[in-house]
Amino acid sequence: MKKEDVPQDLGALGKITKEVCYATDDSGKYTTQLSNGWDVKATALDTAWQNVEERIAAAKQKVLANEASPILFFMEKALMDTEILAGYTGFWQWQVKRHLKPDVFKNLSEKKLQKYAGVFNVSVTDLKTMTVNEA
Amino acid sequence: MSATTLSFNHIQAAHCENGVTVSLLKNSGIGQITEPLAFGIGAGLFFVYIPLLKINNGPVIAFRSMPGLIFNRTCKALGIPVVRKKFRSKETAEAFLNECLEAGHPVGCQVGVYYLPYFPKEYRFHFNAHNLIVYGSNDGNYMVSDPVMEGTNVMTAYELERVRFAKGALAPNGQLYYPKETRTVTHEQMKKAIISGIKRNVFNMISPFMGPIAGVNGIRYTGNKIKQWRDKLGLKEAGSYLAQLVRMQEEIGTGGGGFRYIYGAFLQEAHAYVPNDELLEISNSFTASGDLWRTAAVQAAGIYKGRIGSQEDFNTMGDYLLEIAEIERKAFTALKNIKWQQTNPSR
């Protein structure tokens, strides 16, 4: 890539910091050039976020249909999977998977609910009612 | 709380681990080190596609070697002893960090980016292989040099603890590392390190021992897989898969075919130590490969933006990767065939 071809499409990161890119000058020698971002990259990131939004919406429907516990909704919202959630809560992964079932969730102790609520940064009531307080 | 700020130069780099390696080594006396040299000596260029596994609900693809390896290999090749520690307890991890700072060592830390406060929200996924340097503390806050950022940042003790103990795949477990002592390296040592780095990278990319999913074989494999994605996954998910491929390829700061260009730059810089003109020619091949990776990313973007999406478009995408695999196979074969001894007739 030639130095002058280094993309300068202002993206999310570009507003905070420029990125170092390696590119060649007129004589073919490598040098560095700062970039504001690249459109191709930004849309790849947008696509990832669209997928996240869709997963959250699908999770919400599942909870409302009583096919999953609200933990699924908050887990998707925090971009987590059961492995990551197990890591943050300190539960085993199989326990987290169990807690995703509505019937199991209903009987969870206050202490366990508190753990989930803490990780998702919501109150236990909000956890149960799937309420989101956007800060 | 005591205040320690070490004299430390923040250096911005294209890639986090290269940047941490360069900063820490420069800080301990290795003036010759640059980002491309660290990347090349650490044999950073790689490719692997791990079938069946998924990350963020997409394919697992990496364009560079495992986190931690670049620093370790570079230090080892230059004969610099490394301290690397993981921790169970958050308290011990912080205490050890403080001790290091008091002893005058800036320290590299592996962190997760999901809770990294100065990162834009759009970039905060559960990605645990980011690297930054802590170079001072003041009243419960830590001074942080993140190589992908233009300037330095301050994090509270809690914020730093949270990213050092991020959870999930590749959980950092508070991992930190630094060069144990200040050293200087000679021209001859640099030269040796460069040659061994190239040899290792040749092995990783074209050795038959690496199997079908890693190195240039892995690029071929992925190219062929992509052609099947449309039928297998449906257009929408196939698009998401391609978006993930591009995100891995264009990891923050690698700005387009990224790692291939850094490797091209490495070979040019290597020429100053190992004056073999073949290195310059082969460097051009990596530039060509980087350019083609970029072209492939544009094609992929056409698909995930929904502008194109026929089977023909997927075939074109897959063919780009097959073409790249051939360019890189030839380039690494040429590197393999260099007669290193003859490059130094003066001795």
Quick overview:
The complex is a heterodimer of chains A (135) and B (347). Chain A has helices spanning 39-64, 70-77, 82-89, 93-99, 102-106, 110-120, 124-129; strands spanning 19-24, 30-35.
- Elements of chain A, N to C (H/E): EEHHHHHHH
CATH fold assignment of the largest domain in chain A: 434 Repressor (Amino-terminal Domain)
- Report the count of strand segments of chain A: 2
Order of helices and strands of chain B: EHHEEHEHEEEEHEHHHHHH
Helix content of chain A: 40-55%
Sheet/helix structural class of chain A: mainly alpha
* Average pLDDT taken over every residue of chain A: 93
Query: How many structurally independent domains of chain A?
Result: 2
Kindly provide the name of the CATH class of the largest domain in chain A.
Answer: Mainly Alpha
CATH superfamily of the largest domain in chain A: lambda repressor-like DNA-binding domains
Query: Which oligomerization state do the chains in this entry correspond to?
Result: heterodimer
Give the chain pair forming the largest contact, with residue counts.
A-B, 40 and 57 residues
Query: Strand fraction band of chain A?
Result: 5-15%
Arrangement of strands in the largest sheet of chain A: 1-2
- Based on secondary structure, the structural category of chain B is alpha+beta
The major β-sheet of chain A equals: 2 strands, antiparallel
Q: What are the low-pLDDT stretches of chain B, counting only 5+ consecutive residues below 50? A: none
Shape of chain B: globular
> Count of DSSP helices of chain B?
11
Estimated radius of gyration of chain B: 21 Å
Protein name (chain A): HTH cro/C1-type domain-containing protein
InterPro entries (chain A): Cro/C1-type_HTH
Pfam families (chain B): BtrH_N, DUF4872
Protein name (chain B): DUF4872 domain-containing protein
